[in-house]
Amino acid sequence: MTTFRRLGCLLALALAFATASAADRRCLTECTPRIGIVSAFGAEADILLAQTRAKRVHTISGKTFTTGVLRGNRVVIVLSGVSMVNSTLVTQQMLDHFRIERLLMSGIAGGVDPANRVGDVTVPDRWAMPMEVFWNSGSALPSPCGTPLDLSCLGLQLATGPDGQPLPPFVLEGPSGPVETGLYMRRNHVVNATTGPKGAWYFDYPVDPEMLAVARALSPPLERCGPKARRADGTLDEKLCVREQPRLKVGGRGVSATVFLANAQYREYLHRVLQAQTFEMETAALAHVAHANGVPYLAFRSLSDLAGGEGFDADVGALFASGLAEANEAAVTLAFLEAWRQRPAGTSRRAEGSNRPGTPR
Question: Are 284 and 84 in contact (CB under 8 A)?
């Protein structure tokens, strides 16, 4: 090969690398296009892994990422662990090391809407972080920058409702009357390829509409009794079954925070102010990372109880002891992947503006 031909080949390679998409350049470990599945519950991840074909394990910073094919889709599966911080870390690691076209999050959550049942699987259409707050003295309007509601000198913004007014702070009913906590919800600031360098402010992170449409059409076989509820003789142990038939519920707002919610008053506040459906500790963090990277996402959450519920609930014990929590959650995830693979030809891979967060509704 002549010197000029060698130079031409090198220039062609350099040009190809320079014009490659950001997704091509950022996959540090493997560049096959995949759906990323982040699971917050180990037992459910085990069910998904057991059905994954052509598995290959990658250990990255001590975490196990498993690539393979699940229901006809190329996937990479990882266990996040509990908490917003763990979810943020593992999601960004996945996006850095693999070429992730779309993200799925699945796990267990507490119910917020009292109409929901133990065992229901929810698919919210948006996620928020209500514990991102400005903690003021009492319920006086924050005015740290000299003007009521102005937080700009601190680099912050309050979350507002459709009327443009700040969302009401949480008030705790104490033994001697109302206690004004001064907890005002804030928006989050996001800088990405679309909003940079100034960034933009968001409260909600809507899920991908194309993925949500597929979820709305699902009718997965949700069980009332987990796999461990069946005795050796084939009969059912009703103590290991929930009382009412679980349902798939699509829509509404999911919320995440760095706390394990065991306060009924705060749960009622979230339902009243945000019409929240479910509360947990991972998904909104994944949603924030997904938006910052321009990756569409969707999340499934199996409801274990009513967050902050008081007293023992036999359904909660049955849900976990029988394996129903992970079984129904996995059933929805697998049904979605099957439907996603079979969606009509010509369906767009990524809807324009599909991951653009909005404001409270």
Answer: yes
